[in-house]
Amino acid sequence: MTERKENVRWGILSTARIASKVSRAIKLASNAELVAIASRTKARAETWAAEHGVERAYGTYEQLLEDESIDAIYLPTPPTLHAEWTIKAAECGIHVLCEKPLAANVEESVEMANACSTNGVQLMDGVMWVHHNRTPQMRQIIDDGTLGKLRRVTSAFSLNWDAIPYDNIRAKKELAGGSLGDLGYYCVRAILWAFGDLPTQVFATARYEVGVDMNFSGLLWFDGGRMATFDSAFDTGSRKWFEIAGTDASLVCDDFVIPWNETSARFWIHSTTGKDAEHNVENTIQEVNMIEHFSNIVKTGTLEPRLAEDAINTMIVCEALSESARRNEIVELKLPNRS
User: Fold this and answer.
1) 224-237 tens-digit pLDDT
2) Left, alpha or beta for 151 (phi > 0: left; psi -120 to 50: alpha)?
3) Could you say which DSSP state residue 127 is in?
């Protein structure tokens, strides 16, 4: 396919709070421009468009998808709406960057990926940290043997709600809320990224309130004696770290989900002598990298099926973990039919 010369034209479906963060990234990206916003009401869309300097505002999601100038959309709706609007966008020939979790369940995530593949458009979930410039640097250290043979990954992502905001989608069972899908999803992705394959079985426990998990702890077993643990929570202080431990050393990142600041992100290598090395990566805005990567796919027409596969694999593991917590027993991983 011939590469597009102009910027990729983006639309956003929903005025959810995170849409403001991604709209900034689209505006800062070198190969993208934000041209349209859609909301459930015309007034809300117009207000958001005026505040963010967006040209067109639509009062329905359908109207934005009917805009033939749109190349790609960002979809920050509740997870229960992801499948419906991803499939509709794909059928319109529009590429989809979908907020995590990718869907309400694995079956829907596979349907989304199949619809995008059939219509020749890209699907990717909005896990921003994998696009940071330090991520390939950490990958290189894992791959070059500095850590030795990988044995264990440990991760945590939490925040503290002093009082449960019952009107928040993350606290609504009917919208697929809960800390696992909202926060633990990042930890699971980090574990899969580090080990490079899927676990064989998982075990989990959780504390539920208003029908969703307020905190969640998971244990994952991998071939070769490798293990991983993580926890996510809405009732614990801010934590967003992982440790990847091998037979010779470990890699520690204390802010992998969202760097403490945009000017300098860091990670460490620890060995038997303590902290051996601190690595710093300067001036990277990971959400801008994400938009530029996705826009480059759209511009070149060279799709990356691995991006959808990564999201589906994360969904597979999260669904098994959720099942384990509900049943209070070890769950063997089951791979879905992806045809």
Assistant:
1) 999 999 999 999 99
2) alpha
3) -
Task: Show the tokens assigned to 240.
Answer: 């967003």
188's tokens: 């699971």
Token pair 């894992």 is found at 142
**DSSP string covering 7-75:** PEEEEEE---HHHHHHHHHHHHSTTEEEEEEE-SSHHHHHHHHHHHT-SEEESSHHHHHT-TT--EEEE
How many CA within 13 A on the CB side of residue 113?
25
**Residue 213 · residue 227 · CB < 8 Å:** no
Helix or strand or coil: residue 212? strand
Question: What percent of the chain lies above the pLDDT cut of 70?
Answer: 98
Q: What is the pLDDT of residues 120-134, one digit of tens each?
A: 999 999 999 999 999
Q: How confident is the model at residue 4 (pLDDT cuts 50, 70, 90)?
A: low
pTM value is 0.96
Pairing of strands 123-125, 56-58: unpaired
Spatial separation of the C-alpha atoms in residues 245 and 243, rounded to whole Å: 6
What percentage of the chain's residues is helix, strand, coil (to nearest 5)?
A: 40, 30, 30
Three-state DSSP class for residue 223: helix
